[in-house]
Amino acid sequence: MDSTPAQFGPYRLLERLGEGGMGVVWKAMDIRLEREVALKVMKGGEEGTRKALVQEAKTACQLNHPNIAVIYDAGEVDGAPYIAMELVEGQSLREYAGRSVPEEDLREILAQAAAALQQAHTKGIIHRDIKPENLLITLGGALKILDFGV
Questions:
Q1: For the purposes of burial, counting CB atoms within 10 Å of the CB of 36, is it exposed (0-12), middle (13-18) or buried (19 or more)?
Q2: Torsion angle, alpha carbons of 21, 52, 129, 36, to 10
Q3: Can you tell me the distance from the alpha carbon of 7 to that of 30, in angstroms, rounded to the nearest whole number?
């Protein structure tokens, strides 16, 4: 697991899921509640990064929609800000649409995305990073929107 410890605050790191310019996303176990989560740990502890992370958590927590990933926790461990959210297992819209998909299935996925974004917009919330990588298709075929704005 490279130089990252196996434990991050109340989370046991299980598997590295991805990395972006702002941080690393882990599959982790919340040892307090005994549930798996996606744990986004931000690189660096600059004030701007902290504020952006807190704002993302506050924004996403205002939304309650079946097609928007749920935020469970946000905080800081040893100067590293984090967000713990619903672990969505599946594939990105880019991966999903990159294969042969019946038009009806694709329309249903897009309708789910539109409904979730409409609900966010009615609350005055704009997703500032909508892209195929932030739209995940679950193993059951439902869409989940992630990353509301860091």
A1: middle
A2: 80
A3: 10
User: Residues with catalytic annotation?
Assistant: 129
Q: Could you read off the pLDDT tens digit of each residue along the chain, which spans 150 residues? A: 455 569 999 999 999 998 877 789 999 999 999 999 999 998 766 777 677 777 777 777 888 999 999 999 988 898 888 999 999 999 999 998 878 888 899 899 999 999 999 999 998 888 878 899 889 999 999 999 988 754
CA distances from 65 to 17, 71, 117, 131 (A): 24, 12, 10, 19
For residues 22 and 48, what is the distance between their CA atoms, to the nearest angstrom?
11
Structure tokens at 114: 């539109």
pTM over 0.90: no
- HEC string of 64-100 equals CCCCECCEEEEEEECCEEEEEEECCCEEEHHHHHCCC
